[in-house]
Amino acid sequence: MINNELIDKLSALAIMPVIQIENADDAVKLVAVLSENGLPAAEITFRSAAAAESIRRIRAAFPDVILCAGTVLTIAQVDEAVAAGADFIISPGFNPTIVNYCIENGIKIIPGINNPSQIEQALELGINVVKFFPAEASGGVNMVKALVGPYSQIKLMPTGGIKPSNVLEYLAIPQVIACGGSWIATTAAIRDHDWDTIAKNAVATCKLVNA
Ligand SMILES: O=C(O)C(=O)C[C@H](O)[C@H](O)COP(=O)(O)O
């Protein structure tokens, strides 16, 4: 269960930068650039070996940044992410073993769904916020609108194929609290220490969603 305080923070943010970071030495600088340019948040995905250490360093440097672990596929990764200081867990799919583990241990989780059956499984377990993944490939905005018809109580965080060109259509749906996306800080830009581009992307994104 994601509490109202976190829902409000995610709604105010509107965009969750999805990060695949290869070197934990880059983590603090990356989040400094994002924060200074309007996006004090990061989803650090467990797609790289540097994820847990990156989360640990970001949490130590920025106690108030919204920090979550993404691509969490195993209970061991849940434990690693929480020990490192992640505020909550995001997974691409709906894995009942992981969701139940998080519920039993009081760990906030936003599991992935892309169809009605998975939403019903989520609701049955008391999950109130889900990730809609992969958003564009699963039907995009039209699919979200169709899903929130019968399941108006669920809140969604669409991710996957979201870009400046389509993000506003998602955010216009009342049940969409925020969108995730990797376009703001790409793995290549982080690797190249292209902080200027990441800063520009963050500023442009904030301008777009707050217009
Ligand atoms: O596996 C997860 O938990 C994820 O977080 C998947 C990512 O959110 C998407 O791969 C980002 O999608 P793009 O913005 O299209 O690059």
Would you mind describing this structure in some detail?
The protein has one domain (4-204): TIM Barrel. Helix 2 runs parallel beside helix 10 (195-210) and helix 3 (51-61) runs parallel beside helix 4 (75-84). It is an alpha/beta fold and 211 residues long. The model has no long low-confidence stretch (mean pLDDT 97). Strands 5-4-3-2-1-9 form a 6-stranded parallel sheet. It has a 3-stranded parallel sheet with strand order 6-7-8. 44% of the residues lie in helices and 16% in strands. It has helices spanning 4-13, 27-36, 51-61, 75-84, 96-104, 116-124, 140-147, 167-171, 187-191, 195-210, and strands at 15-19, 41-45, 66-70, 88-90, 109-110, 112-113, 129-132, 155-158, 179-181. It is built from 10 helices and 9 strands. 2-keto 3 deoxy 6 phospho gluconate binds next to strand 9. 2-keto 3 deoxy 6 phospho gluconate (ELE) binds next to strand 9. It holds the Pfam family Aldolase. Keywords: Carbohydrate metabolism, Lyase, Schiff base. InterPro entries: Aldlse_KDPG_KHG, Aldolase_TIM, KDPG/KHG_AS_1, KDPG/KHG_AS_2.
